[in-house]
Amino acid sequence: MSGQDQESVTLRGVFQAFIYWPRIFRLLWSVDRGMLISLLGWQLLQGIAPVAMLLATTHLINSVGESWEKGIDVLYASFVMFIIVVIVRQLISLVQGYQEGLFQTKLSNKINQTIIEKAVGLGLTEFENAEVQDQLKRAQQEASYRPYQIMKQMFSVITGVVTMLSAAGVLIAWKWWIAFVLILMPFASFISFLRLSQQQFEYEYHRAPLRRESWYWSYLLTNDKAVKEVRLYQLGDYLLNKYMDILMTFFRQDKLLARKRLLISLIFEGVSLTLTTSMVLLVLLSAFAKEILIGNVFGYVQAITLTQNTSQSVVQGLIQLCQNNLYIKQLFFFLDLDSAEQKQLSSARPEVPPLETVEFRNVTFRYPGRDVDALHNVSFTLHRGETLAVVGKNGSGKSTLVKVLTGLYPNYAGEILLNGEPLRSFDLDSLQRRVGVVFQDFMQYESDVRHNIGFGNLPALQEDDKIYHASEQAGIKPLLEAMPQHLDTKLGRWLAQGYQLSGGQWQRVAIARAFFREADLYLLDEPSSFLDPMAEADVFHKFQQLLDDRLGIFISHRYSSVRFADKIMVLDQGQVVEFGSHAELMAQDGMYAELYNMQVNAYLSDNKGGSPEDDNQKVAVAAD
Ligand SMILES: Nc1ncnc2c1ncn2[C@@H]1O[C@H](COP(=O)(O)OP(=O)(O)OP(=O)(O)O)[C@@H](O)[C@H]1O
After folding, report:
1. How much is the pTM?
2. Looking at 1-5, 92-96, 103-107, 484-488, which range is the least confident one?
3. Where are the domains of the chain?
4. Which of 131, 399, 439, 562 is the pocket-test mutation for ligand 1 (most atoms within 8 Å of CB)?
5. Which fold has domain 17-174+324-337?
6. Which of 146, 358, 398, 447 is most exposed by smallest CB count within 10 Å?
């Protein structure tokens, strides 16, 4: 973790975090300045209200005695004034509550939007980094309410100070030192409580990875995808225990803190109660000695408790402000993350022109934290109208090649050239608009068919003919036509009346999504892993047609499809070990020929005596 984070856990860091206040103010201001100003106004009035109540009550009680001499009108006048103060106070509180609720929602929406915008802007390597994920989690967890709390606490400190000073004013007129003691007393607890808050923050800070882990266990226990394995392997109790272990760790820490807080509170409450009761006794004795009126007994006792309570709440407010400072720092820390990858790719650059050639020139890429290259000196050239099949064992770098080519991992060495110009010199978005891709771990969107396919080309989302055309190319048009609401049929299990598809059908939807994009370059990463041999042959046939004047790269372990590609590249441990057409590679009798023959022989030995049908079909069945 960075030095900045460690620093925040010290007491000095608590105060240093006040530097974020101007930013918090700007944030609050940007949400709704009018509402912010009026909330501040209400808060000031709220601060004066208790003392106005106190004075009105004192006046009311004293007016009883006055009315004996001056008549009943004096009493009525005080009573009316009292009622007005009560009504105004209630009204202020209601209006303030209403506005606060609205403002809180607006603020929380704005912050969540800002966090998500930041997360979306991160590069893939950054996004896959566990530390960045922890920071995101910390920011998300605190963000929706901390800035609001800070604002509320600032307000309540202001209100508290106004109330405290006005209540103390009542006492100063009588005995100034009482006000002085009452105001200063709670400040003695400031450092102890602050340390406690700091400890709580430290616990919270280190909880981020554990929270993610606990979230994952609970996700496995409650998600419909995981439920089959969890049931069958009887993982339920084991996972639940893991989940509960984490929760219990949190609970033990919280309990320890709660005990400390109880102890400190007991000590300070004891001292403060002794002092306050002594002062109340002093008021009573003064009344007994006829130094003050009965109405003033009420006024002074109220002023003592009000001053004591408000100075205590001012101190509590300050402590919470300091504590929230620490949390808010996490939010800004995440928002200030320097996304090197995005910067590298998002500065103003020319658009990618229609693609004619794609060339890899000695491309090398290594994942962060790894000590071997996932791609090492990979070179090849592909022209418009050609298809390239990439084959190789598991972990040989095939999927990485797709991700590097689409700009998801920009930190590669060597050069990727588009029409002879470096990929890095182009605008990334414009490249991605020219690419249709099916990832190995393609998405299954819990939405309707229209969106599942339409996400491939959002501007054409409402163009039913085009969606049907893409679905035809992916071989699922008859399925869509048979669905109850056709393109508006919801897919998956999360939504009500969701229509669940088989693995292969989902994969074809993903293929339709890629085909729906009017792309120059299609990248299919094991697009037939879930498909039956007939479906696979059908999809590849359509793929070849689609690629008539475009570029296509597909990754497959099924040699029945691979053999028809114009070029075949064999990767082994990130390096190109063979390159050529099917015939050329078979003639070389190297790794490709070995893998190809292995699949054919496996099929043939399983089907001895069967009629010699289409060779393509045999290999397809043998594959995977
Ligand atoms: N996100 C990642 N972070 C770190 N290492 C990764 C990541 N993805 C893949 N790797 C590593 O990079 C290497 C190449 O992985 P890649 O997914 O490109 O292989 P592949 O040829 O597509 O394998 P498969 O046939 O199993 O799909 C592997 O050693 C893998 O462990």
Report:
1. 0.71
2. 1-5
3. 17-174+324-337, 176-291, 357-600
4. 399
5. ABC transporter transmembrane region fold (1.20.1560)
6. 447
